[in-house]
Specification:
This protein has ten helices and four strands. With about 300 residues, the protein is of the alpha+beta class. It has two domains: about 180 residues, no CATH class; about 80 residues, no CATH class. The chain is rod-shaped.
């Protein structure tokens, strides 16, 4: 199937396009603007979800909740030694007490500085594998030397966030698919309306020996060009909005929101959207015009 995106001057005169800019172009600009925004959201949440998963898999926090300070310190030292000697542990580091004390002071006020307030000792653990078996093995090794220890998997309490971000990604993908379907429907309606507008011209062309395929190419070229030009405008505007929002998120200083960033591959995919929609419009216009010509002529 030969597809042409550039409408010849003779074709434009034949289809009476002297009106200049057509409404179809602006409709496609709006369609591509919404599509590019939805695609940018989906790609950004997909990247953030992948980053979150990489950060959480194999991460544990061991808390020593012993009320007695001497016993807590002894169990913390024993747990730290057991973790560093355990197979499957990449790194184990004791959490600095100062940030915890500052957090309590900000939350509880003067009561947070009470020296008798028991603050659990905490150890951050990185595993070589994020499997359940590795986590269970580490928890058992800690329990043997620190009875008051409690092991928390980061993946467990952050999984709802990861699940929600995956849901947003799928919703964005669904929105892109819906807009693509709506675009195809708009193209079909526009092609049929244009066919009716130029019905007399088409009848003359048939009498002069033009085939249905030749006539269909006239319409598909025009619609493809409208889609490509309007889509380029809409995509540029959407990319500018996405870049501005990304720059704004970068200033918030949130590790989670920093993951909502588009990479080079994502920008390239957004740049290809006008061409993909022009191809979609071309195919839809071809089959719409051919089907209508078989029925009315």
């Amino acid at each position: 199937m030969r597809i042409g995106f550039i409408t010849a001057a003779a074709d434009r005169r034949l289809l009476d396009e002297r009106g200049g800019t057509r409404a179809m172009m602006w409709i496609m600009a709006i369609m591509l603007f919404l599509t590019a925004l939805a695609a940018a959201l989906g790609l950004a949440t997909l990247a953030a979800t992948a980053l979150l998963d990489r950060q959480l898999v194999g991460r544990l926090t061991v808390q020593i909740v012993e009320p007695s300070a001497p016993a807590r310190a002894a169990q913390n030292a024993a747990a730290l030694g057991a973790l560093r000697a355990a197979p499957g542990v990449r790194d184990a580091a004791e959490v600095d007490f100062a940030p915890l004390a500052a957090l309590l002071l900000a939350s509880l006020g003067a009561d947070g500085a009470d020296p008798d307030l028991p603050i659990p000792a905490m150890i951050d653990v990185d595993l070589t594998s994020g499997g359940d078996a590795a986590a269970a093995s580490v928890a058992a090794a800690v329990a043997r030397v620190a009875p008051s220890a409690r092991v928390d998997r980061h993946q467990r309490w952050m999984s709802p966030v990861s699940g929600f971000m995956r849901l947003v990604t799928w919703l964005a993908a669904g929105l892109v698919a819906l807009i693509a379907g709506a675009t195809a429907a708009v193209v079909i309606l526009a092609a049929r309306a244009s066919l009716e507008t130029h019905r007399e011209t088409i009848e003359v062309m048939h009498m002069l020996g033009s085939t249905d395929m030749q006539i269909a190419r006239l319409f598909q070229r025009r619609i493809a060009l409208d889609t490509l030009l309007g889509g380029a405008v809409g995509t540029v505007l959407a990319v500018a909005v996405a870049a501005a929002l990304g720059a704004r998120l970068a200033t918030l200083g949130s590790d989670l929101l920093d993951g909502l960033a588009l990479g080079q591959r994502d920008w390239a995919l957004l740049a290809l959207l006008p061409f993909a929609f022009a191809l979609l419009a071309t195919v839809a216009a071809r089959y719409a015009v051919l089907g209508a010509l078989r029925k009315i002529l």
